[in-house]
Please model this.
Amino acid sequence: MSSVKTRRDVLGTSALRPDGPAKVKGEFDFTSDLHADNMLWGATLRSPHPYARIVSIDASSALKIKGVEAVVTSEDVPGQLTYGLISSDQPVFAKDFVRYMGEPIAAVVADHPETCRRALDAIVVNFEVLTPLTNPEDSLNQSVPSIHPDGNVIRNQKIVSGDITATGPIVVEGDYVIGMQDQAFLGTESALAIPDADRKGVEVFVATQWLHEDQKQMAACLNLPEEKVRLTLGGVGGAFGAREDISLQVHTALLALHVGRPVKMQYGREESFFGHVHRHPARVWMRHHATAEGKIVKIEARFLFDGGAYASTSSAVLINGITHTQGPYKCANAIVDGYAVRTNNPPCGAMRGFGVVQACFAHEGQMDKIATAAGISPVEVRLLNAMETGDALITGQIVESVAPVARCIRETAALPMPDPLSPNAHELDLPGGSGLTAQPHNIVRGVGWGVSIKNIMYSEGFDDYSTARCTVIDGKVTVKFATSEVGQGFVVLAPQIARSVLGLDDVVCDTIDTNIGSAGSTSASRQTWMSGGAVDGACRMVRERIFEKVAAENGLNPLSLVIEDTDIVDSMGTFRIPVLQAVQGSVFSEEFEHHHRATEDLDDDGQGNCHVAFAFVAHRAVVDVDPELGLVKVVQVATAQDIGVALNPLSVTGQIEGGIAQGLGLAVMEEIIVQDGKVRNPSFTDYLLPTALDAPNVVASFVEEYEPQAPLGAKGVGEPPCISVTPAIVAAIRNAVGKDIPRCPVRPQDICL
Amino acid sequence: MTVYLPHTIEEATALLEAHPHALVLGGGTDVMVEINFNHRKPSDVVALRNVDELRTWTINNETSSIYIGAGVPYSEMESGELQKVAPALAAAARTVGSPQIRAAGTLGGNLGTCSPAGDSLPVLSALNAEVHLASSHGVRSVPFAEYMVGPKRTSRTATEMITGVTIPKANGWQGYSKVGVRNAMVISVASACLAIQDDMVRLALGSVGPTIIRCVEAEKWLHENFATLTDLQPADCAEFGRRAASEARPIDDHRSTAEYRRHAISVLAQRLLQRSIQS
Model:
């Protein structure tokens, strides 16, 4: 009998995702598809004003509507009245003041979403409308009254490094503006809460990035022990940072406990724009001093992040921004001042890139200015300054990560350029697309560069560990973790790890819930490293138990046993047994917590080893621009990304292509328009995401240098693709039209008027 | 809410006579959005999905005209026979939403909503389309210029329904351009249709005023100063663009600025005229 070797979905292969076919066929159960018997619906009453005092709330008419079970306000919150990821400053329901348009004031629970809508209409809130604080510069002014008891400045941090009097013959300056981007996940916020019969506990199915953080904040607001708030991950349709903060979690559970029946809440697209935080709009001023050759001597910078009404993760976003001032370049001297402030604009928090996007847009604009002043190319200036392993950041931290910056740049430069624009180009391929606004002779082409450094994992002393359990019963492997699968593909990676470590092929992922320790957040490009490390650790512990058993039964030294493909082999002898055979009739189960190395807070001068590790990437964008109409078509993005090793090449490619599309959005179209504190475009009609006709051809190269600090040698790959592609595209537009454009997204009028 | 499903225009108009406040539902790409957002709470809806005669179109070679029923979806205008005889309408149809929207959306819907950003409306204006209205009292035809009287305001009465439009078969160059901040599936920031019909250049603008704007002054200037279009120099096309832009009445909103819209019209009008000469 010949044995046929089937393809094994181990590490390094492009194993296919278990959730893929269901998602493609529309059969995947997202949280919004959940249903429970006897279920009611919840809905949220939101403020129409960016800033107002609540004079009174009268829900009596709403309660008279048939089908309405209850209306809850801040009065009904049994525990802590506020929540928040870093500081607990955001009310579950506004009590005295509303501080942003869309802030929750009350929630209703009724038999049908339409009944909920009528009930919301029937609640009468008397407001004393106040003048909103909407200019973040005003938030720094001591004479402007505070809009929140915690004050208008969320955090201020300086970085002072080296010789701050240093200068050079080249001095270039820029004042950069980054607009407010939305994460725009496709699956809007949704949760189903099922109360315990005694109403002293609740089971919640929710689409989130971090089950245990939700659990902690919910328990505090509900005044329940954490173990009485049991969370299970519902099917998640994208996250990108927008599911880190609490949105409807507390409201749904509160309503369910209030009425003693299952309650479901689900936001529509418009409400979603008000229901989650956005990317911080920012103003970043930088002045670079360089040698005549173009080497950076010193950087001066000022960052102003508009955090909106509540703190969310603003203080961490600020630190990420300012500590990445220099970009992936050597720099000894710097003086940086950064502020995250409170306004009556929409609250801002986590989004893919987390503060580094804003820094990168500015430092990459500066690098091109240095290149121009030094008379060298964008590639030359970046190679001349490229950071290497062992270099010190302006925070004093030594970059111990693999840092193949020069290699990323060179490999990107070596990728083929697209064909020149043909005079017979298809009309849909020109800027303006289906609008047929141009002919090929109207179009000019530009090329631009962006290179970035991004910290991965949480910073500033935070121990964002991850937990996993591996159980083997009769050769069938189950891996258990609380890692949120938001679309990134951990549900395919975890089994790959188990197969590689154990030599067993039958691997399933257990339900993702709070019946195991925290996995930390699916953010900061950290889950492959952190939860990957936890699954790897748990599987290795099980492997040791298996080796011990096999060694004992066969008189071998367990330390000499190794896994070879699907066999256990004695490396010192001839013994060989299939793993599957060796574990028959046995049960093994081990749990492992993976912690990254400790980090530190920054001191008053912004010095300290605050980050864990770094990942790098280079982008080259080729764009066609219609200079007269200001319309843009991104033709190609070439990229070489530092990934450590590719554990699943298909997944890496997916992250690269998706991140580039998201960064393109910020470069040329995605912006939440806020006027006087009011969101003007809360819909996909007017908040524009790139379509297939806008997405560029992506040519990507993996820079694979094993990262010794990482448990699997692999760096996180989620955020870097979206960071430097934005400045690369904007640089290409500048290159095409010969105009200094200091803001993104670039609007048509920024190009042609 | 009562939803009526008539099978004929006659049945539909009788229903509108009985329920003058009823909302007429065609492809639903505008109406359903408004209902979903609770901007409209109709008590009665007359849904036209079963009125087959609204989904027909005919080319009349004797009168050199095209009749298009109000229920013909954009997807049918994008290509094929209709594209050959009405190329500007085909180009406008291709810019409407996504393929799914174009399979549902209709000319009747664009005319019923009558937004200045309606993608097909500049074409109907430039081609001097006749809009056909029917009620239980009879039928009438209204020139497009008299049909659209303001932003989302028309001369249609509550008991009338739009049955179709008549436009001339193209007998000269036609072109349509639309500026949006995305390369597809975008609401117009500014649009223009230029059609040469019976040797006369006609230009209509969308999204740059309370109604579709017919550039009568620019058309007149061209007609009075140039015997044939082949006499036109690039500078003349630019002047035509400037004159068209001066007839626009754009505003600032969250989609763009008045200044950019006016500028875009000058570029679109200039380029359309240049393309008409090249061809």
